[in-house]
Amino acid sequence: METTTVLSSRSLQFYAITRKWLSDIEFYRTEVSFLQKLLDERFFTSPAADERKKIAQLNSELMIFEVEKNQLESSLTQQQKYLELMIEDIIPEDVSWLAGKQIELEKSVSEVFTEYKAVKERIFRALQKNHGVSEVAGRPLFAN
User: pLDDT tens digits, residue range 12-47?
Assistant: First the structure.
């Protein structure tokens, strides 16, 4: 018979945050796949060598993000499993260890997600520049 325990509100908050970050990563997985297809399509249809070089560089940056995202996902999954073991009362709750681990994860999440947003913006700029789209309703799509 499985026993469960009631975790502190702080540990439950860590669990909810960890699940949210994992959900964000799942969304990024779908989005990255879409962006890679756009970049591949542009790479193979562009007659300009300099544009293909820029697209290849952006694709490389996206692949670097993918590796970092996978490492982060692994760390978050470990955190989630650890919290679930505490919920099932298999291991004791250790709030001080969790707090330290959560701070590390928060820093990693912030860095990886910020890097991804910057790469995504560069991709959008490159793709919009080549489509001649720079404004919507008289406003720039991306401010320089």
Answer: 999 999 999 999 999 999 999 999 999 999 999 988
Residues 56-82 as b/e (b if ≥16 CB within 10 A, e otherwise) read eebbebbeebbeebeebbebbeebbeb
Q: Please, which residues have CB within 8 angstroms of residue 56's CB and are 6 or more apart in sequence?
A: 43
Distance CA 120, CA 141 (A): 13
Backbone angles phi, psi at 134, to 5 degrees: -130, -15
Q: What is the pLDDT of residues 56-96, one digit of tens each?
A: 999 999 999 999 999 999 999 999 999 999 988 899 988 88
User: What does pTM read for this prediction?
Assistant: 0.80
Residue 46 dihedral angles phi and psi, to the nearest 5°: -85, 130
Cross-strand partners of 140 = 135
Structure tokens at 52: 């293909």
Cβ distance 25 to 69 under 8 Å?
yes
| C-alpha–C-alpha distance, residues 6 and 64, integer Å | 40
